[in-house]
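wait is this the right file?? whatever heres the structure
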């Protein structure tokens, strides 16, 4: 998949790792370049080696591995980052394109290897070298500029349709798709789920935010949550890249209604699905269900 991992993929990885990593103590650390692992040797010795994993969290598309030292390994997967856990008992090929390769890790795309006291390992693989793993005091993670700017998490209990309406208003003159993709408006939503939610809500992605009615925003909120939850249940969308803790490939794409289905009939009305460019991204719509509104907000 050329698409960056989105919230459901990263949530799938988080859940798998949070089941496997807590309680493991870091015994050794190897990395191939400071770009992927920009940490001082002093910090690594003091706060990573010998520290035990407390748990794994997610913020937007970033994974946070909390340690007993009061530090957190902030892991940004970017386009091709993968975390693979391997132990004599089990492996979690979160993101390994070929499960049989787990046995051959580390390989040429392994950037960081954490060895644990019990002989298990966590590999951070990243073909394109855009991702990174930073060791930071846990209480400073929220001050990282890109994390501080993030919008709310759509799956948090406080994320109501009114919150969505309020967040979208920040981009009233933008089209609704680019507003949904803006991580400062909302955290973790990317191309696939924006297309799917807009189709579900019958909103054309080029519609200006200021022209979307309150009723449509309610529907969009509903569809966004439904599509994210379904995708997490299915283990994410990137069949080639993400597998869950049990080694199952993400199967959301089987349920996609419009994404990458151009030329096929709309599951709702039978009209041929079209592909256009909106917000600089390939965008899939049903030209009949999602008509462009040019009238003022209803």
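ok assuming it is, sequence goes like this
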């Amino acid at each position: 998949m050329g698409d960056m991992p989105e919230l459901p993929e990263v949530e799938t990885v988080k859940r798998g790792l949070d089941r496997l990593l807590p309680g493991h103590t870091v015994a050794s650390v190897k990395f191939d370049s400071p770009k992927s692992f920009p940490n001082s040797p002093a910090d690594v010795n003091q706060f990573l080696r010998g520290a035990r994993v407390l748990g794994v969290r997610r913020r937007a598309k970033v994974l946070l591995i909390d340690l007993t030292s009061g530090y957190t390994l902030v892991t940004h997967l970017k386009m091709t980052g993968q975390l693979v856990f391997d132990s004599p008992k089990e492996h979690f090929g979160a993101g390994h394109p070929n499960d049989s390769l787990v046995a051959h890790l580390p390989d040429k795309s392994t950037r960081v290897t954490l060895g644990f006291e019990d002989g298990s390992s966590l590999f951070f693989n990243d073909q394109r070298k855009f991702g990174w793993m930073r060791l930071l005091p846990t209480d400073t993670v929220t001050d990282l500029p890109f994390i501080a700017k993030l919008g709310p998490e759509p799956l948090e209990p406080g994320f109501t349709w009114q919150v969505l309406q309020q967040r979208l208003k920040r981009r009233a003159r933008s089209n609704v798709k680019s507003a949904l993709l803006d991580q400062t408006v909302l955290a973790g939503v990317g191309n696939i789920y924006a297309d799917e939610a807009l189709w579900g809500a019958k909103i054309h992605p080029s519609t200006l935010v200021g022209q979307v009615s309150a009723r449509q925003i309610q529907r969009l909120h509903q569809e966004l949550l439904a599509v994210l939850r379904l995708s997490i249940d299915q283990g994410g969308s990137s069949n080639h890249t993400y597998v869950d803790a049990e080694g199952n490939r993400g199967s959301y794409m089987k349920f996609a209604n419009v994404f990458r289905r151009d030329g096929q009939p709309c599951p709702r009305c039978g009209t041929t699905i079209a592909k256009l460019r909106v917000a600089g991204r390939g965008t899939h719509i049903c030209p009949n269900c999602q008509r462009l509104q040019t009238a003022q907000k209803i």
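The helical segments are 7-20, 41-48, 145-148, 161-169, 176-181, 191-200, 214-233. so i think its the right one actually
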